[in-house]
């Protein structure tokens, strides 16, 4: 199943946020979206995932999702969005409660998702008892439980410390390799984008337009090797040079706001 | 060489001083038994003042006289007669007001139409002292139990509705968006996200409405009732039986404390995740 951003334009009242953004995320492909602060990255993701109606244009799906997918487009949120009154197991089970799967299937899906994210021993813990990294693992586990075709990830690591971020990035690499899932990965962190994405969509300053689409010429497995670091760094520098001046302008704009 | 002294000074000659503790930011804390000890102390002073004749028992009977009055009320059966009448009014009135308040509060919290209509009416009617409506309610409902129960229900309704829709408003929107992103149906979102999310505010509302109910039952019983703690207190006051009057007040205080304990228990059971 492909996800298509078809000429998406969006305004909040008088404020133009996105301007004619079009690209396609093919099945199994990971596309990162980067750009200066306030360029509309998260707004674009909300539109792609059906949580916000665009002013014009539309998000579209091409082809059928995998037969076992219970929620083809599934979000992983920056703030985890966990139910604080539910334990880990209940949080992961939550999106399955209204589906047609039997109780036994539901248990199996939850068990599998918890195992894949290393949460089996924490299934009875409540969110307040977990670290930020573990909370995001619960968010990822919940997303995996519904067998998504495409993960929509909104800065999933930005609320975490650098060590936890590194560990979760390794998890993402493994999960993306295992599951055959595609992903749209919104981030301001160019290292994450270069490490995880097949293609990087660079947006301009508000109103966000596609400035360039950069392909990452390595497999994700190769990117973990020391020899690849120089190439990845060069790629990050290339993208940074594209957005640096606009990022400075955007920061000044925020400060003056 | 991090411990090297600055140039030109001798480390041995410098006076070593401990850094003074300057505070940890006014952390609120209370001692476990402090409140009980203070209460016991006040009662002891009160008793001593009564026993030594420092205070006229007609104006302020000693705690032992109040305890005796409660005991006599209990063995004569009058305590239960008055208490059961008040409990029935409070129970029925609170349940009716709470049920209606929860329903209207949720409607206001979840529906744009209900919000625009409901908040207008609540803003207009909430400030009215509900006891002022008792004569009107007597006119409408007769002189039986109904107007007293309706007065309590009205008082409870407005506070409950306000706490419920405030609680619904306070449910983090990101949780609702999360549920919507998984195509969770509206009814399930209300049951599994909005209700538990609003529960802390709802239980806090219960704490307020139980006090409102107590206040209104006493007021209503003072205006027009033969039995009930409010009627008993008024009658004792008219007869200058201050020990009986204060016995009624103590019973009201104990009842309020018990309701508070029940709400504490509910919070511990239902909000253990906080």
Structure description:
The complex is a heterodimer of chains A (257) and B (274). Chain A has 257 residues and is of the alpha/beta class. Helices cover 39% and strands 23% of the residues of chain A. Chain A is built from eight helices and nine strands. In chain A, the strands form two sheets. Chain A has a six-stranded mixed β-sheet with strand order 5-6-7-3-8-9, sandwiched between helices. Chain A has a three-stranded antiparallel β-sheet with strand order 2-1-4. In chain A, a hairpin with a 2-residue loop joins β1 (2-12) and β2. The termini of chain A are far apart. With 274 residues, chain B is mainly α. Chain B is built from ten helices and no strands. Chain B is flat and about 65 Å long. Chain B starts with 33 loop residues before the first helix and ends with a helix. The relative contact order of chain B is 0.11. Classes of the chains: A alpha/beta (257), B mainly alpha (274). The A-B interface holds A 49-51, 71, 73-75, 77, 79, 81, 83-86, 94-95, 97-98, 126, 128, 146 and B 174-175, 177-185, 188, 192-193, 196-197, 271, 273-274.
Shape of chain A: globular
Task: Sum up the overall morphology of chain B in one term.
Answer: flat
State which percent range the strand residues of chain B make up: under 5%
Percent helix of chain B: over 70%
- Name the quaternary structure: heterodimer
H/E element order of chain B: HHHHHHHHHH
Question: Given the helix and strand composition of chain A, which structural class is it?
Answer: alpha/beta
Mean pLDDT of chain A: 90
Unreliable stretches of chain B: none
Q: What is the radius of gyration of chain B computed over CA atoms, rounded to a whole number of angstroms?
A: 27 Å
Describe the main β-sheet of chain B briefly: none
Question: Would you list the SSEs of chain A in sequence order as H and E?
Answer: EEEHEEHHHEHEHEEHH
Main beta-sheet strand count, sense and barrel state of chain A: 6 strands, mixed
Individual helix count of chain B: 10
The structural class of chain B is mainly alpha
């Amino acid at each position: 199943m492909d996800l298509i951003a078809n000429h998406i334009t969006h305004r909040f009242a008088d404020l133009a946020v996105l301007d004619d953004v079009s690209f396609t995320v093919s099945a199994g492909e990971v596309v990162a979206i980067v750009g200066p602060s306030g360029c509309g990255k998260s707004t674009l993701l909300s539109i792609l995932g059906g949580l916000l109606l665009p002013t014009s244009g539309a998000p579209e799906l091409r082809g059928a999702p995998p037969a076992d997918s219970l929620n083809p487009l599934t979000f992983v949120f920056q703030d985890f969005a966990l139910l604080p009154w539910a334990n880990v197991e209940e949080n992961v089970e939550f999106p399955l409660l209204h589906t047609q799967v039997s109780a036994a299937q539901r248990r199996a899906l939850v068990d599998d998702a918890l195992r894949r994210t290393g949460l089996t021993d924490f299934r009875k813990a409540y969110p307040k008892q977990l670290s930020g990294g573990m909370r995001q693992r619960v968010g990822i586990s919940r997303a995996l439980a519904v067998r998504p075709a495409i993960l929509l990830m909104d800065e999933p690591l930005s609320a975490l410390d650098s060590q936890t971020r590194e560990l979760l990035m390794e998890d993402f690499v493994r999960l993306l390799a295992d599951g055959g899932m595609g992903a749209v990965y919104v981030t301001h962190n160019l290292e994450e984008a270069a490490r995880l994405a097949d293609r990087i969509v660079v947006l301009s300053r508000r109103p966000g337009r596609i400035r360039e689409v950069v392909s990452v010429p390595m497999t994700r497995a190769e990117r973990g090797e020391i020899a690849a670091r120089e190439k990845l760094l060069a790629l990050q520098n290339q993208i940074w040079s594209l957005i640096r001046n606009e990022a400075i302008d955007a920061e000044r704009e925020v400060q003056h706001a | 060489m991090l411990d090297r002294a600055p140039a030109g000074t001798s480390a041995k000659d410098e006076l070593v001083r401990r850094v003074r503790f300057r505070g940890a930011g006014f952390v609120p804390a209370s001692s476990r038994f402090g409140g009980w000890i203070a209460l016991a102390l006040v009662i002891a002073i009160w008793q001593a003042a009564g026993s030594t004749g420092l205070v006229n028992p007609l104006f302020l009977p000693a705690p032992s006289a109040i305890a005796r009055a409660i005991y006599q009320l209990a063995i004569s059966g009058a305590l239960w007669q008055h208490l059961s009448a008040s409990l029935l009014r409070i129970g029925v009135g609170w349940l009716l007001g709470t049920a209606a308040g929860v329903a209207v509060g949720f409607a206001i919290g979840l529906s744009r139409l209900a919000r625009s209509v409901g908040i207008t009416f609540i803003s207009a009617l909430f400030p009215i002292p509900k006891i002022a409506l008792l004569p009107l309610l007597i006119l409408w409902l007769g002189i039986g139990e109904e107007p007293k129960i309706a007065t309590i229900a009205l008082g409870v309704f407005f506070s409950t509705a306000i706490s419920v829709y405030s609680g619904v408003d306070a449910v983090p929107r990101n949780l609702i968006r999360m549920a919507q992103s998984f195509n969770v149906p509206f009814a399930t979102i209300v049951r599994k996200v909005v209700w538990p999310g609003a529960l802390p505010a709802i239980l806090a509302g219960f704490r307020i409405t139980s006090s409102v109910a107590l206040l209104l039952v006493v007021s209503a019983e003072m205006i027009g009732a033969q039995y009930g703690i409010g009627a008993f207190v008024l009658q004792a006051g008219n007869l200058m039986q201050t020990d009986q009057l204060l016995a009624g007040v103590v019973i009201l205080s104990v009842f309020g404390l018990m309701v508070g304990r029940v709400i504490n228990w509910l919070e511990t059971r239902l909000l253990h995740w906080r």
